[in-house]
Amino acid sequence: MEKSWESNKQVLAIACNDIGLLVKEVPEKRTQLETLGLKKRVMELMTDPDESVRWESLNALSGWLKYGFTK
Q1: What is the rounded distance in angstroms from the CA atom of residue 20 to the CA atom of residue 27?
Q2: What is the second-level CATH architecture of the domain 9-68?
Q3: What is the pLDDT along the chain (71 residues), one digit of tens a residue?
Q4: Of 24, 37, 49, 53, which is the most buried if we count CB atoms within 10 A?
Q5: Contact of 23 with 67, CB cutoff 8 Å
Q6: 44 Cα distance to chain centroid
């Protein structure tokens, strides 16, 4: 894929949603997802100008936090 998806806000929002669902469905893989840099990128997207990207990134991060405290 040669197209950069950075400027497509809908793609970023959907990606955040998918990452959030993945963290909630398979919480034991959180560490591996963090190793890939996904948590950091989701946190960066929390400051995006687009409201839907911010909302979905916040929801995705809530999954990380929820399972971080339920051990």
Answers
A1: 10
A2: Alpha Horseshoe (1.25)
A3: 456 777 899 999 999 999 999 999 998 888 899 999 999 999 999 999 999 999 999 999 998 888 665 55
A4: 53
A5: yes
A6: 9
| Chain centre distance of CA 5 | 15
Q: Taking the domains of the chain in order of start, what are their residue ranges?
A: 9-68
Handedness of CA 50, 22, 30, 5 (dihedral sign): negative
CA–CA separation, 71 and 44 (whole Å): 26
**Closest listed residue to residue 65, CA positions, set 37, 42, 36:** 42
Question: Residue for token digits 């946190």?
Answer: 43
